[in-house]
Amino acid sequence: MRKKIIFTVLILFVLFLTIAGSAFAMTNFQSPDLWESVDYTIYADSAHYTMAGISYGPENLKDYDPNTAWVEGAPGYGYGQGLTIYPGHKMYFHGFAFHNGYNKSTKARNENGAVYSFDFYVNDQFVDTIYLSDSTSWQYYTHLTGFNLPPQDKIRLVITDVYVGPWDDEQDTALSGLLLLYDHYREPQPTPQPTQQSAQVNVDETVNQPATDELAQEVMKPKETQSKNATIEIRSLIAIVSVIIAVAALVTSFVILLRARKNKGTDDKNDPFEG
After folding, report:
1. Phi (first) and psi of residue 130, to 5 degrees
2. Residues 6+ apart with CB under 8 A from 98
């Protein structure tokens, strides 16, 4: 009986370790091998007016302080309100970290809405719709390929849906933090100049040649994409295996406990000193 209890405790310990490993793998999966930056210039389509000396402008998104927030100032819930961001240095841009809502207090959290979704643009070209949870934790969004961005390039986020703050009639939507996730900037390589021999190609053949912009984009594709994807796949596999082991350990522990309880009942019935 004692051996079974010890064995059960060991299995529960393995269960704890596997769940912890799964959580670690999934946490690191969110933004692998990327730097976070608040080195950017940001403008908002609107901001709530200052109250009691407290500002609600977009600069609050850069201070890592949950007691401050950008709160949009348009009538209604803020649909269509956006943020325009210019990186402060050249980077290979991969995505964002968001601190959603106004996290100064439970009261502030509930009196202001939070962002449900953003439309994401780079240089006025639509990229993706980003969905956020109504959580006080930091949330990560990473684009699969990323973008080579010099400082003059523009990133745009536009609110398309919100979590409504139920305790307040002002219908404000808030965001407490915004970080840029990036990697090394990849210097574009010069486009190869045609030699005298290659210049004498047939006109029909030149139609199928890639344009200069397309060629430059090919050159600027990240060389580390395969290694990053491999890292993501490994971490995902670790998380899946951890969950499987955890479930197996839990089921085994449950079966052992049931058998131990059944055997204890049988031993009690056979005990001449009982009853």
Report:
1. -105, 125
2. 115, 132, 138, 139, 140, 141, 175, 177, 178
Q: Under 8 Å CB-to-CB from 85, ≥6 apart: which residues? A: 40, 41, 42, 154, 155, 156, 157, 178, 180
Q: What is the mean pLDDT of the chain?
A: 76
The residue ranges of the chain whose pLDDT is under 50 are 24-32, 197-232, 273-275
pTM of the model: 0.58
For residue 71, give every residue at least 6 positions away whose Cβ sits within 8 Å of its Cβ, in sequence order, or none: 47, 48, 56, 102, 112, 172, 173, 174
Please tell me the distance from the alpha carbon of residue 32 to that of residue 46, in angstroms, as a whole number.
Answer: 33
Q: Note the pLDDT tens digit of each residue in 188-220.
A: 666 555 555 433 434 343 333 333 333 333 333
Q: Are 267 and 259 in contact (CB under 8 A)?
A: no
What is the spatial distance between Cα 142 and Cα 134, in angstroms, rounded to a whole number?
18
- Give the Cβ contact number of residue 253 at 10 Å: 18
Q: How far is CA 170 from CA 174, 219, 260, in A?
A: 12, 50, 60
- Condensed to tens digits (0 to 9), the pLDDT of residues 63-93 reads 999 999 999 999 989 999 999 999 999 999 9
Where along the chain do its domains lie? 1-30+224-264, 33-186
- For 46-56, write each residue's pLDDT tens digit: 999 999 999 99
Provide long-range contacts, Cβ within 8 A and 24+ apart, for 208-213.
none
Which of 22, 42, 171, 21 has the alpha carbon at shortest distance from 96? Answer: 42
Scan for tokens 């769940």, then name that residue. 19
How is 21-69 classified by DSSP, letter by letter? HHHHHHHHHHSTT-EEE--EEEEES--PPPBTTB---GGGGGS--TT--
Collapsing DSSP to helix, strand or coil, 195 comes out as: coil
Report the top-level CATH class of 33-186.
mainly beta
